[in-house]
Amino acid sequence: MVKFRILSICFFFGLLLFNGRVNGQDETDTELLNGLFLTEIEEIWQQSFRDQFCLSDDTAFWNVNAYEPNHVPPLDTALVYARLRLLDAQSPMDLKPNAEVLEYIHFYASRRKEQLGRMLGMSTYYFPMFEEKLDKTNLPLELKYLPIVESALNPQARSRVGASGLWQFMLATGNAYGLEVNSYIDQRMDPVMSTEAACKYLEKLYSLYGEWNLALAAYNAGPGNVNKAIRRSGGKNTYWEVRPFLPKETRGYVPAFIAVNYLMNFHDDHNIIPAQPKCSWHETDTIVLQTRLQFDQLEAHLPIDKETLSWYNPTYRKGVIPADGRRYALRLPYDLVAGFLQNQDSIVTHVPEEVVEEISTPEPAVYRVKSGDSLGLIAKRYGVTVAELKAWNRLRSNMLHPGQKLTIYGKGNNKSTEATVTGKEQPETSTASQATWYTVRKGDTIWKIASKYSDVSVEQIQRLNAGLNAQNLKLGQKIRIR
What we know:
Elements: H1 2-22, H2 27-53, H3 59-62, H4 77-89, H5 99-111, H6 113-136, H7 146-151, H8 171-176, H9 191-209, H10 212-221, H11 223-232, H12 239-242, H13 248-251, H14 253-265, E1 284-289, E2 293-294, H15 295-299, H16 306-312, E3 320-321, E4 328-333, H17 334-342, H18 344-349, E5 365-368, H19 375-382, H20 386-392, E6 405-408, E7 418-420, E8 428-430, E9 435-439, H21 446-451, H22 458-464, E10 478-480
Antiparallel strand pairs: 1-4, 2-3, 5-6, 7-8, 8-9, 9-10
């Protein structure tokens, strides 16, 4: 049907364009027809994704058993076990039923119905992308349910120990798998990049243990805790044999994962209805930028607010896409991409109400523990807390040993100061970022400022200061020179 509609549209517009040429139709009309044609094609294309990936939140559609809204159907243990065996037979993972799994199914189905309904709705947005990345690395597709257990499908989720994002990466683990964190961006919250990193990490863990449930336990507690549990179990090599020796949280992690697998597949029989479903990941697109851009600049020219932009782009911590010479992706609903491209110059040059300050981001320090060191002394030296040190390095006790390496992030690691040099034509330089700044004085223009530096042009200043209004410089305004 979709193909027929596209062919019909192509034929119709083909006739119009041909007729226009014969009758001397001008270029404006042709552009208009082409625009209408593309709009219609895009609508059909996007509708195909909605039909394929989007869940209905119509209660009547799912409520085939005529349940009352808050009714919790009793568990039929035999039926649940039979369904789990079916899921297990279709998966390389161990999804076999047992009493612990049944207990988690009962808990989620009775006390987490609304939350699961919301996550079921969110799954229509994230799961197509998860499945694509898992399939590319030849991992079990059932792993797409792991972020439900980890983060409730919230890309900006942050745990009490500092793990962040859909896949809940700790800072050190995220860095090890290529996820950068600085004052402007946190790639642990980037859905695509964190999913790719999680695939690599899970693949590595499975290669270590050769058993998926042990790999999941290591994902949750770290390989060190799993290795200790294996030793304490007498060298057992399956999760259920090692489970009694794992940390308490991890003992419930795998049963919860299996329970979520079950309920996401048979949600309607447990009166779990998709709530506020998002449309498919394929109904969004990305634009690659190398220009500094704030979300309120976009908000001023596109029908989208900063909160929604932040939801689509959780990577940018301050609502700012930085300009540091690299390429960054801006994700937008598909129907806003054309509007951005048409208004890009106006968006980039729009002066935001409040310019987010430039921030110098320190690199992490790696400290080698010396004899006599303690976490308290090291924390004090770097201006951080003991809790932060333990979270960054996944330490479960305060014990240290000489030669041990600690990764340290934080304000104490930034030794920079902004050196202000007096004199009419002297720059202000931040030693940490190697950036040169100039403070606007009375009578200054962009040309005058550029002329103060032998190797700086007006164009360079404008590129480095996205949104700078060259006709309205303010006294005391900071302008980046290099």
